[in-house]
Amino acid sequence: VDSSIQNSESLDNSSFDWPKILTNVPHNAAVGLILSTADIADLRAFEKEVFGKPGNRPLLEKVIELMERASQVDATLAEWPKSLPKSWKWKKGYGLDHLPDDVRASMVYEDRMDVYTDLWVANTWNSYRSSRILIQSIILNCIPWITTSSEAPSLADQSTFACLITQEMVDAICASIPFHLGTKVSGGPVVQKDTQYPHADGTEVSRDHRIAAPACGGYFLLSPMMAASKASCLREGQRKWLGEQMMRIGKMYRVPNPSNRASEKTLHF
Length: 269
Description:
Mean pLDDT is 85; it is low at 265-269. It contains ten helices and three strands; from the N terminus they run H-H-H-H-E-H-E-H-H-E-H-H-H. The chain is mainly alpha-helical. The N and C termini lie close together (9 Å). The protein has a three-stranded antiparallel beta sheet.
């Protein structure tokens, strides 16, 4: 599914029988998200068909159809969180108070830290957010092409809504970064005893998280951070802050161009 989304290819062209495969897979939150995002592959393929010819003005009716389909897919995807157990809801994070203000600001965006049950849950949530950011970008790309007076009032509202959703998703991705990286700035996957992670009120950071976070936390963040940094209508300075976090991951894992690695990696899972 992810490969098809990234390459703007319809799942109809896939050699796999996805409905049959997913029918035989135990249903859980991640599978539910895959089912909810499967239509994005077809949406990207249609977007490529509509806008894929440089120099050619896209047909208005096709652009309207694309935006309507994107809105429908987004509405379906927005239902996914309602299916999750309460344990999947993130909690407000505390800690890292010992850091100087400038250092803390470089690791914590807008003083918000979210804590999850584990990295897998956080990664699944960020996959959801990346998907919704992608859909909003398709909607926002369609709007300038639709200029008829009958469509204009609703388009103004839809543009505002798409920007609000985009900002909400990007803010949540930023708030997950301290949970993934803690205060670590170097040393790769090696556990460092002095690395601090945010914790929920009244709880301690688990030993499992202290081992898993340096091993794969940065890797899990690459794709959602790339999606977030490419998003439209972000508040001032947020894109720069995300770029600094990408550079931090590159330094930690000695990856020269982490943004390139993110593009090589699948966008979601």
